[in-house]
Design the sequence.
């Protein structure tokens, strides 16, 4: 009995010393935490979505738009894009900042070797980090353990801005903004498979949970292209009330949430009929959607208003927003199992 008490006590001490929220910091939500890139403040925020409180803030480079979290929940990776927009003159970022989410500090910087305007980063099942490199018309492949660039996969198109990866890690898809196209990449061979013309200009990209469809958004017409990943061709179009900027499918594959570019609207598309069935108000200049694991809640970053909208996907009702500061953009999630 005494031995069991000692074991429990030792376990409690280990838990306390390994928690990123020790030393008097607030207890985190049992469900998980949001990690938010603020491109105007040049910071990464750790936010408890349940209490709607900012728990930590770490300064990063100019400007970090997007953020991705390592599988173990320890580090956040923030590509430092630069101080301009896509295709516009300005500073060309050449690094990725690494934020320690346990100690709440900058842990290091990955040097890409040249000005690339890195933007979207995604982890593959192979544990490697894939990052769009706009000025190289490519996606860089990075080993996070050594923080070195291993390879560069050509996209064959300029302004490869956003990236999604298939769940099996075989394919990558980039939205090439000014080229108005989508590039299909073989991640194993690190080669370009196909380029799919879509429109004069596109923005952002998402994928259905089953990996059968990729979605990208025509910036001149109110429609979303539905690309068949088996044929690498546009199979259908989703008609919208206004052009969309970004989208995200729910984990059950039933709905596609799409951010309208005007009137601050979030459109809900039924993926069985490809029809808009709901339209909800969101903050000004909303830019990114993150759906919490389990599919119950969606978070929408309102870059202009400095708020994160919170949508209950069961009741289709907006909850109280998370009030932050203007510039909130990229979103990532730390599951509850990785908070400690």
Sequence:
């Amino acid at each position: 009995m005494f031995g069991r008490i000692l074991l429990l006590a030792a376990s409690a001490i280990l838990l306390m010393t390994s928690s990123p929220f020790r030393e008097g910091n607030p207890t985190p939500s049992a469900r998980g935490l949001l990690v938010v890139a603020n491109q105007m403040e040049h910071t990464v925020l750790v936010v408890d979505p349940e209490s709607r409180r900012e728990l930590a803030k770490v300064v990063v480079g100019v400007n970090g738009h997007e953020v991705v979290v390592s599988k173990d929940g320890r580090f956040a990776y923030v590509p430092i894009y630069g101080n301009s927009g896509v295709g516009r003159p300005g500073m060309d970022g050449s690094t990725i900042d690494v934020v320690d989410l346990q100690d709440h500090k900058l842990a290091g910087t990955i040097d890409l070797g040249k000005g690339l305007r890195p933007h979207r980063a995604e982890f593959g099942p192979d544990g490697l980090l894939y990052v769009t490199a706009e000025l190289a018309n490519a996606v860089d492949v990075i080993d996070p353990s050594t923080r070195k660039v291993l390879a560069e996969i050509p996209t064959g198109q300029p302004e490869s801005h956003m990236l999604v990866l298939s769940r099996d890690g075989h394919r990558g898809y980039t939205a090439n903004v000014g080229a108005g196209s989508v590039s299909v990449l073989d991640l194993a061979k690190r080669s370009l498979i196909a380029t799919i013309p879509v429109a004069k200009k596109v923005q952002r990209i998402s994928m259905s949970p089953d990996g059968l469809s990729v979605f990208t958004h025509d910036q001149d017409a109110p429609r979303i292209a539905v690309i068949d990943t088996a044929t690498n061709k546009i199979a259908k179009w989703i008609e919208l009330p206004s052009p969309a900027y970004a989208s995200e499918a729910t984990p059950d594959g039933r709905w596609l949430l799409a951010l309208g570019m005007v009137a601050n609207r979030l459109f809900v598309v039924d993926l069985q009929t490809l029809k808009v069935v709901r339209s909800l108000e969101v903050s000004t200049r909303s830019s990114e959607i993150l759906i919490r694991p389990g599919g119950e809640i969606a978070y929408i970053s309102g870059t202009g208003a400095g708020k994160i909208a919170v949508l209950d996907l069961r009741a289709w009702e907006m909850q109280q927003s998370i009030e932050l500061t203007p510039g909130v953009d990229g979103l990532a999630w730390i599951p509850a199992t990785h908070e400690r």
Summary: Residues 2-18 form the longest helix (17 residues).
